[in-house]
Amino acid sequence: MATDPLLRQGPDSTDLVLRGGSPAGPVRIALTSAGPALFTPLALVVPTLLVAFWMALAGARASTVFVVVGVIAGLEYLLGWPAVAFSGARCILRVEFAPAGVPASLRLVRTAGPDDWLPVDTLREVRLTHEVVEPYEGDRKPAISTLVLELVLRGGRERLAPFSFGGDPQRLADALEALLGPAGVVVEPRSEHSTRRRPLTSRLDLRWFGFGRLGQRLTPGCQWRSPVGSGAGAGQ
Known about the structure:
- The chain is of the alpha+beta class.
- 31% of the residues lie in helices and 26% in strands.
- The strands form 2 sheets. Strands 1, 2, 3, 4, 5 and 6 form a 6-stranded antiparallel sheet that branches. Strands 7, 8, 9, 10 and 11 form a 5-stranded mixed sheet that branches.
């Protein structure tokens, strides 16, 4: 009997539910991937800017540089879209173990649909890594608790991206061990704790660029300090 919220026992199988939702068709996957694919040009912004920089040094017109940069960004998006869609289609929603009592087979249910059923002894090990990032002293943000699941299979391994987890990792490990232990599957729980890094605060003083008065007009409530420590007061 399942004893953890992530384990749901049905009449035919016990499911390890990792993400909500049901498998989707290729059209839906492609449409949902269109937005995240926009980050591909942002991830490749450095080489794109290098191309623009060298074109500017070569004497190209600004309009020509903008057109070339736009074409490059468009190509990056068109290449990133199918990559994001493929990654999303391979995302694992849940792992099904059948029958429900003492499982003899398993299958991975992905966004694009379920894989074929495999013998349960194909699964050699389940690794659960509970990662907790504690706030630093004075930080008002709460701690972040995530879980990383890795399935060690006979022909390879499946490692899921970290997802938010507010439950008891030991409880989940015990439930999986009770379910898969008779089949010889090893369940290995791990715990990692760290402290969130304190952000590096830096002030941009517009006087360095000669825009001190403009900054005071835009943000009259701010105090502008001299970067060289000349003792200039606020509002000068």
